[in-house]
Design goal:
The structure holds two protein chains of two kinds. Chain A is an alpha/beta fold. Chain A contains 15 helices and 15 strands. In chain A, the strands form four sheets. Chain A has a five-stranded mixed sheet. In chain A, strands 8-6-11-14-13 form a five-stranded mixed sheet, covered by helices on one side. In chain A, a hairpin with a 5-residue loop joins β4 (170-173) and β5. In chain B, the strands form three sheets. Chain B has a seven-stranded mixed sheet. A three-stranded antiparallel sheet of chain B has the order 5-6-7. In chain B, strands 10-11 form a two-stranded antiparallel sheet. Chain B is globular, with a radius of gyration of 29 Å. The chains are: A alpha/beta, B alpha/beta. Chain B: The active site is at residues 141, 183. Chain B: Keywords: GPI-anchor biosynthesis, Signal. Chain B: InterPro entries: GPI_transamidase (IPR028361), Peptidase_C13 (IPR001096).
């Protein structure tokens, strides 16, 4: 070793060694190692030791005061504060008890004691009602009351008038307005009349009430039955009725398209051959359908387009069965009746469920809002007439998707052109289907009342869905503590909460249009909060990953730091012990 | 609100009874030519669900590489899943939604949770709701509780489980079938904790999944065993969307000797009995049909006529109340926005334009002549 280092260095080492030997007299323990030939560095001057301690200390000070906070801050997950308690109470349905007070104006000019009648009817209604959130309020209308109509929408106007002598009580619902004309028999008895009025009103709003109670009930989380729930108004009969209808209502609800402020309607003409080559769909829609779309405009908007697809084939699994006219009812699988002159092709229900040839028919919507499809299918001449035997209108509805009508053009006519008038029956069916897809109740014949019901239903739906989104967000933030929550989520949540509160207020005051508006806003903000796009990220890192990330960084930096600190501490301990020994 | 408990449970049962749409998310996660079989696996599944009626708009196909156009492909533009090369999976009707480097863990989780950019096209989004059944198929290279994406990153079983939980929370599915073909596949679904998920995988912990056979002309393995036998069952037994075969039949058809690994099924999160679950509940798209005029004969009123008559009552009714302005704005913006189609451009025939053109040309020519004359 000394040869390689050169004489000077070797000399220095030698002198140092001798110095160590000299020192070993002072520290006899170290003398052992020296005697075995191992060389140790020269002793530190006190100055050096002090400087080294300071250096190590300053490193540690930097690491602790700058490094650690920096690491903490840069790796911390930002979680904006959320009003968790409020969110939960909305999700549980405790924050707002949705109420649907329907105001009914009663005009009874010919009745001697309208107030008394009103009182008894109101009592009867309240007693029979087991779903208290949705209730009817009667108001005797005078001409002066028209002025304050502005603040609260009137659900219906009941006009009482005397009917023909000897006839029983009856009522007529005007199909195009909110008026109910009730004719009481001249020889009336106040109790039967009030019972009749009450049952009439109940009948008219029964379906809506069921729908809303279904909506609100489905929102409630896992049933936590209060013992009192069985008690109350004792309307056992009513409950049985409810149960019977539940399946029906569930079916109705399952076909409803989720609420959106906009829908896209696509009218498609699929023809199995090359004709008709054009159709007056634009004129037909603007003439026949537009008024309905305008009427629905307060609830949702619509965009419309149309398309024609020639040579649109049915999918191979749909095989219509030929049924000659003579044996309509008996043998569906009867002999191939090609020779039989008259007959028809029928589609069974299984055929209908795969009728839409989604692989080949261009039914893809590119709009960002939901699309509803309406299809007119014209079969080829050799498959005509194509009939759905159980349908009187040759049409069917696909829940949440749209409607289909099979159109068999009359034989022998000019088939190249579908006129506006020829499209009218199809549009009639589509209009009915559209209403049921949107969720309008089928029951009262009056369109305005049905649309009002739809407004209320949709507000209930929005309220429920926004609340449940809040609940999801609430549970999500608790379940995934490592997900970040940007401040925009917090803003959206508070905006949702204020909209929900406003919607609840509007409902309570019977301003359903305003409630829908607020509900729409609440829903939009809640969705925005939940689907905040920065709330993704790989949430889960296994421990090995963390080790793998930190070790290359912390190893080279941390090991010298730690070793230096340990050495320094052990030195201090030694010094301290030595000083104690001296004493 | 105070409905009796019986009614509430009845309601929830009713709500569980059916789905109205079927969606499929098919993901291959491997890059590079030698992973040909993973893309073939996915494309075979794509073909199957499409055959059984799920429309392209409801299939999210994620292909991590473009092997059909790989320079090493001896049959350019095609992908086969069998050495007989009878069926080109990459035919003319393929819609790939996420391609190549778009197939990442982040995009996959964004797709599931729908936390996407606001301008994401509809075809790249999983627009499901609480009545949608989703079939998720994944294939690639994986290990214990992870699946590699693009040889660059990996998704862990925990991430998928959390994503599914978020979907369940937001009511983004009704029922889900999760199928995965990768090594140690069964570990991938071991962390799930959300309801209504049926999961199946090709191999258990510490087991590899193997390829079925190679095509010597293509030069690589063309399909994995587990997927192969799934497809075999589906092709032979589920001919059309009206098939009555159940998931139990499918799971019973798995044979360890054939697959060379132990396929797993996880049913504890799934409520229904597998005997009652049709294969087409996940692989097909059977739409419920309500035949018009079957029972509701009584209210066959003329809605169109009514809406015309009722204009006075539906429209002015909207104008009063506090919400008048909002409603009006909705009305003005909403109803029937007409889509502008192609517009014929009228060629202007006037002489003035021609004259201007000639004038411009002449000026240029003069300038050029002048320039060359000056030099």
């Amino acid at each position: 070793m000394s040869e390689r280092l050169g004489p000077d260095v070797a000399a220095t080492i030698a002198s140092a060694a001798s110095a160590a030997v000299a020192e070993s007299k002072i520290f006899p323990e170290s003398a052992v190692s020296i005697s075995q030939g191992k060389k140790s560095p020269p002793p530190d001057t006190p100055e050096n030791t002090r400087v080294r301690s300071l250096v190590i200390l300053s490193f540690w000070v930097v690491v602790i005061t700058v490094g650690l906070p920096l690491w903490w801050i840069t790796t911390a997950i930002y979680r904006a504060p959320l009003p968790l308690k409020e969110m939960q109470s909305w999700a549980d349905g405790r924050a707002c008890r949705a109420e649907f007070p329907l105001l009914i104006d009663v005009e009874a000019l010919t009745l001697p004691d309208p107030e008394g009648l009103l009182k008894t009817v109101q009592h009867a209604l309240d007693d029979a009602n087991d779903f208290s959130a949705h209730h009817l309020r009667l108001r005797l209308s005078t001409n002066s009351s028209k002025v304050e109509d502005g603040e609260e929408s009137v659900a219906a106007t009941l006009r009482l008038s005397q009917g023909a002598a000897g006839s029983p009580h009856s009522y007529v619902l005007s199909p195009s307005s909110r008026a109910i004309d009730l004719f009481y028999s001249p020889s009336y008895n106040p109790t039967t009349l009030s019972a009749f009025v009450a049952s009439t009103l109940q009948e008219i709003f029964a379906e809506e009430q069921q729908m809303i109670s279904y909506l609100l009930a489905s929102s409630a989380p896992a049933p936590s039955p209060s013992p009192s729930s069985g008690g109350g108004n004792g309307g056992n009969g009513v409950k049985v009725v409810n149960k019977v209808n539940t399946a029906e209502i569930a079916r109705k609800m399952s076909r409803i398209v989720k609420y959106s402020p906009m829908y896209h309607l696509t009218f498609s003409l699929f023809t199995a051959a090359g004709d008709p080559s054009n159709w007056e769909i634009e004129e037909a829609v603007s003439e026949y359908l537009q008024p309905l779309l305008d009427a629905l405009g307060g609830i949702s908007g619509f965009t419309v387009d149309s398309q024609i697809q020639f040579y649109a084939s049915l999918s191979s699994s749909v095989v219509p069965t030929w049924v000659p006219d003579s044996e309509k009812e008996e043998g569906e699988e009867g002999e191939e009746g090609e020779e039989s002159a008259s007959g028809r092709y029928i589609l069974k229900k299984e055929d209908l469920s795969s009728f839409i040839n989604s692989a080949e028919w261009p039914l893809v919507s590119i709009t960002s809002y939901p699309a509803i499809n309406f299809i007119i299918y014209i079969p080829a001449a050799d498959q005509s007439p194509l009939v759905i035997p159980t349908s009187s209108t040759n049409a069917f509805l696909l829940p949440q998707w749209g409607g289909v009508m099979i159109h068999n053009p009359p034989a022998g006519s000019d088939n190249t052109h579908l006129t506006k008038e020829a499209l009218k029956p199809a549009l009639d069916i589509f209009a009915t289907q559209l209403l049921s897809l949107l969720g309008a109740p089928t029951h009262p014949a009056s369109l305005p009342i049905r649309l009002d019901s739809l407004t209320r239903q949709r507000s209930a739906e929005l309220l429920v869905s926004a609340s449940s989104t809040l609940g999801s967000l609430y549970r999500l933030t608790l379940a995934l503590p490592s997900i970040s929550i940007p401040s925009s989520v917090s803003t959206s949540v508070s905006s949702t909460l204020s909209s929900l509160t406003a919607a609840c207020q509007e409902l309570r005051h019977g301003r359903f249009g305003g409630a829908l508006e607020e509900g729409r806003n609440a829903e939009e903000q809640a969705e925005k909060a939940f689907f905040e796009k920065s709330m993704v990220g790989q949430v889960y890192f296994p421990e090995e990953h963390k080790v793998a990330v930190y070790l290359p960084l912390m190893g080279p930096v941390g090991a010298p730091l730690l070793m230096a600190a340990l050495k320094e501490i052990s030195r201090l301990v030694r010094v301290w012990k030595a000083s104690r020994l001296k004493k | 609100m105070k409905l009796p408990l019986a009614l509430v449970t009845l309601l929830s049962c009713g709500a569980l009874a059916q789905h109205t749409s079927n969606w499929a998310v098919l993901v291959s996660t491997s890059r590079f030519w030698f992973n040909y079989r993973h893309l073939a696996n996915v494309l075979s599944m794509y073909r199957t669900v499409k055959r059984l009626g799920i429309p392209d708009s409801q299939i999210i196909l994620m292909l991590s590489d473009d092997i059909a156009c790989n320079p090493r492909n001896a049959f350019p533009g095609t992908v086969y899943n069998n050495a007989d090369r009878a069926l080109d999976l990459y035919g003319d009707n393929i819609e790939v939604d996420y391609r190549g480097y778009e197939v990442t863990v982040e995009n996959f989780i964004r797709l599931l949770t729908d936390r996407v950019e606001p301008d994401t096209p509809r075809s790249k989004r999983l627009l499901t709701d609480d009545r949608s059944n989703i079939f998720i198929y994944m294939t690639g290279h994986g290990g214990n509780e992870f699946l590699k994406f693009q040889d660059a990153e990996e998704i862990s079983a925990f991430d998928i489980a959390d994503a599914f939980e978020q979907m369940w929370e937001k009511k983004r599915y009704h029922e889900m079938l999760f199928m995965i073909d990768t090594c140690q596949a069964n570990t991938m679904y071991s962390k799930f904790y959300s309801k209504n998920i049926l999961a199946t995988g090709s191999s258990k912990l510490d087991e590899s999944s193997y390829s079925h056979h190679a095509d010597n002309d293509v030069g690589v393995a063309v399909i994995d065993r587990y997927t192969y036998y799934n497809l075999e069952f589906l092709e032979n037994n589920v001919q059309s969307a009206s098939s009555k075969h159940t998931m139990k039949d499918l799971f019973d058809s798995y044979e360890t000797e054939k697959i060379h690994s132990t396929p797993g099924v996880r049913t504890d999160l799934f409520k229904r009995d597998l005997k009652d679950v049709l294969i087409t509940d996940f692989f097909g798209n059977v739409q419920n049909v309500e035949i018009d005029g079957e029972d509701e004969q009584k209210w066959k009123e003329d809605v169109l006529q009514l809406s015309k008559l009722a204009v006075d009552f539906t429209m002015p009714g909207r104008k009063n109340g506090t919400c008048a302005s909002a409603r009006e704005s909705a009305e003005t913006s909403a109803p029937a926005v007409k889509k502008v189609g192609a517009v014929r451009v009228e060629g202007s025939k006037g002489w003035s334009r021609n004259a201007m053109g000639i004038g411009a040309l002449l000026t240029c020519a003069a300038a050029w002549v002048a320039g060359s004359a000056l030099t």
